[in-house]
Amino acid sequence: MTNKKTTFIPAEVPADLREWLDREAARVNSVEFISADPVQFPRRFSRLQDIETVALLSATVAWGNRKMICANCEKMLRIMDYDPYSYVMDQGYEELPDGNIHRTFFARDFRHYLRGLHSIFMRYGSLADFARSEHIADNEAPAWHLVEGMNRELAAANGGIANSRCLPQNLATTALKRINMALRWLVRDDGIVDMGVWKGVITPAQLYIPLDVHVGDTARSLGLLNRSANDRRSVDQLTATLRTIRPEDPVYYDYALFGLLPETAEQHP
């Protein structure tokens, strides 16, 4: 299922638009960006499994008001006593009382996710090694292939029950925004915002744009996307276009698309 991919004819990106995107991406991709973004939370850690755990959880709740997102990422770190890998391996989550974590993500969903991570860490050592065991680099859609495997592991660790509040289940259509964002953090390594701790798992060239409503609207304003839905096909189309101008690192332009307002994008040269 995850290998099926529609081939799109990429949009032509004029030279002046590319230069403008380069400038906007460089402006947003800065150290100053970190303190207001959920990427700040996995960046606090140095141990790979801590980074992986916090990257996944922070990305999972990265929807809605950014101040609330960051406050609730901090809440999750407090729950885990600021030692996420040990908390997972000691199964401290089993003692967590019911309650809300972020919007529709509750303690029961948090426990569900961490049971799955516990199983993955026990059997593979790290999420990176799990991704290697799934051969995601050999798949045309590595993020979707990774989630397919993770859904299998999370369900197995929770009595066969799937949970779409942890990871999307509709892999044929989902834009997979949050996992694509987490993978940007884990894979890209330009020494500025993204951490690049997944060496030899997949390359930046294999990443897909984290597409949400804002990024989609901005891309349409710039003529980079002509589909109205913010779904997997639109991710494929937009990423294919961005690969024509930066094939080795297409999601670099996430910084430009995320950082611009659609009405500002309409004013580009």
Keywords:
13 helices; 51% helix
Main beta-sheet annotation = 2 strands, antiparallel
Mean pLDDT: 94
Helix content: 40-55%
Strand order of the largest sheet: 1-2
Runs in which pLDDT lies below 50 for 5 or more consecutive residues are none
Strand percentage: under 5%
Helical/strand content category? mainly alpha
Spatial gap, N to C terminus: 41 Å
Q: Give the overall shape, derived from the CA principal axes.
A: globular
Q: SSE order, as H and E?
A: HHHHHEEHHHHHHHH
Supply Rg: 18 Å
How many strands in all?
2
SS field, number of helical segments? 13
Give the arrangement of secondary structure elements.
Elements: H1 15-28, H2 31-34, H3 48-60, H4 66-79, H5 84-89, E1 100-102, E2 105-106, H6 107-124, H7 127-133, H8 142-157, H9 177-187, H10 213-221, H11 232-245, H12 254-259, H13 262-265
Antiparallel strand pairs: 1-2
Helix pairs in contact: 3-9, 6-7, 6-8
What does this structure look like?
Helices cover 51% and strands 2% of the residues. It is mainly alpha-helical. It is globular. The chain starts with 14 loop residues before the first helix and ends with a helix. The model has no long low-confidence stretch (mean pLDDT 94). Helix 6 (107-124) packs across helix 7. The relative contact order is 0.15. Strand 1 and strand 2 form a beta hairpin. The chain contains 13 helices and 2 strands, in the order H-H-H-H-H-E-E-H-H-H-H-H-H-H-H. Strands 1-2 form a two-stranded antiparallel ribbon.
